[in-house]
Amino acid sequence: MVGATSVIRHARIGNGPHKSPWLDGLLARKCPKLAAVALANKTARVAWKLLASGEAYDRAHGASAMPAAA
Questions:
Q1: Hey, how many other C-beta atoms are within 10 angstroms of the C-beta on 54?
Q2: pLDDT of 17-58, one tens digit each?
Q3: Which residues contact residue 8 at a Cβ distance below 8 angstroms, ignoring those fewer than 6 apart?
């Protein structure tokens, strides 16, 4: 949660290293605290999948697998 809150803070001031359409859309729809919970959940799910499968993280694959914001 602490890491997600930091990412949210940097995204809101436009100071983050990577632009995330998913996160921008989420922040447009939800309050920052709820967005931080969603981001922490997403991060935990990715970490669990990587640990369980032994795969390496591929940023390009992860970005293409994300559903488009509605």
A1: 6
A2: 678 899 999 999 999 999 999 999 999 999 999 999 988 888
A3: 23, 27, 32, 35, 36, 39
